[in-house]
Design a protein that fits this description.
Helices cover 33% and strands 26% of the residues. By secondary structure, it is an alpha+beta fold. Strands 1, 2, 3, 4, 5, 6 and 7 form a seven-stranded mixed sheet that branches. A hairpin with a 5-residue loop joins strand 6 and strand 7. Helix 1 runs parallel beside helix 4 and helix 2 runs antiparallel to helix 3. The longest helix has 18 residues. The protein is globular, with a radius of gyration of 15 Å. It starts with a strand and ends with a strand.
């Protein structure tokens, strides 16, 4: 039987290249959030026991959009260019190349900005281990946190999601949110 470990989540938002909120990227610290069972009945179309990282990414996208729809918000379009940057960050965290954090967020956004002009960008990261549905656990953790939920409910139109699995079996999640520049 797998020992269930606590999930950790972090969120950050930038607008026009500036950090919002009172925390700078240097002062961000991981936040522990107890992940007890919550009643999120509006998240109905869950993918149970996904077997691949792509399925986990799809499950996160589906759950986030189901939640947004339940709040009367438009769904986020999944963009492969944004997902590429999210995957790189999740892999780097899973390998231990970077700490579990938003390290390099500005660089990820600059790379994305070469292909997609943006007005606003945000990022949520999470990791967990020992859960039957790690994607569901990550989304529920984000929704329990006001800062992460603010990113999920934010005025964004595109998203990218990357999931990676570390050597110890922990799953690392990165979701990047983008509001495209108007033409």
């Amino acid at each position: 039987m797998l020992k269930q470990l606590a999930g950790f989540i972090l969120g950050i938002t930038i607008t026009a290249g500036m950090l919002e909120g009172s925390q700078s990227s240097n002062s961000l610290k991981s936040q522990y959030h107890s992940l007890n069972t919550i009643d999120f009945q509006k998240l109905q179309a869950r993918v149970k026991n996904p077997v691949s990282l792509n399925e986990l990414e799809s499950a996160v996208h589906e759950e986030i959009n189901n939640y947004r729809r339940s709040k009367g918000l438009r769904p986020l379009k999944l963009d492969s260019r944004i997902s590429r940057q999210a995957r790189i960050h999740s892999k780097d965290m899973a390998r231990g190349d970077v700490p579990f954090s938003h390290d390099g967020f500005r660089t990820r956004i600059k790379i994305i900005n070469r292909q997609i002009s943006y007005r606003r960008a945000a990022e949520n990261v999470a990791f967990n281990q020992g859960f039957a549905d790690p994607a569901d656990r990550a989304v529920l953790g984000w929704l329990k946190s006001s800062g992460h939920r603010r990113n999920i409910e934010g005025n964004f139109d595109l998203t990218g999601i990357g999931v990676s699995k570390g050597r110890g079996g922990a799953y690392y999640f990165t979701q990047i949110f983008i509001l495209e520049e108007e033409d």
